Amino acid sequence: MTGCSAIFHVHTVFNNLISDYYGDHGFIPAQSNELIKQLGIWEENANIAIPVLPNNIDIPSIARLVPGAIHSDIPGFVLRNHGIYAWGNSIWEAKRHLEAFEFIFELEYRRLALLR
């Protein structure tokens, strides 16, 4: 569905925290962040929405939602309060995307913490 050659799936604190916070919205917003360029989006002050899927013990119900979470410009999605899937045309590109997502998630978490 993505045409990729590699997919990484990891579980980290920040993707769990931020996906739980934005889970009801269905996406994690990110805007004007330099690391968005690492996802291949070079638009000035880019504003993206990283999909968040609900977590469920019934894996086939999650699988049915995956096609709607795959967007050609966003190389990944998050399973709420579980982990992230990031992909690319090589293991190196998939890793770069994963690291960019994780930076975006941590930055958003810390930004929200400052606003409280």
Poorly predicted spans: none
Helix content: 25-40%
Give the strand order, joined by hyphens, for the main sheet: 1-5-4-3-2
Averaging pLDDT over every residue, what do you get?
A: 95
The CATH architecture would be 3-Layer(aba) Sandwich
Distance separating the two termini: 40 Å
The number of distinct helices, counting runs of at least 4 residues, comes to 3
User: What do we call the CATH topology?
Assistant: L-fuculose-1-phosphate Aldolase
- Main beta sheet strand tally, sense and closure: 5 strands, mixed
Q: Give the overall form.
A: globular
Helix-strand makeup class:
alpha+beta
Portion in strands? 15-25%
CATH class: Alpha Beta
Total number of distinct structural domains: 1
Could you tell me the radius of gyration in angstroms? 13 Å
Give me the strand/helix succession. Answer: EHEEHEEH
Features:
single chain; 116 residues; 5-stranded mixed sheet; globular; alpha+beta
Task: Give a nutshell description of this structure.
The protein has 116 residues and is α+β, with helices and mostly antiparallel strands.
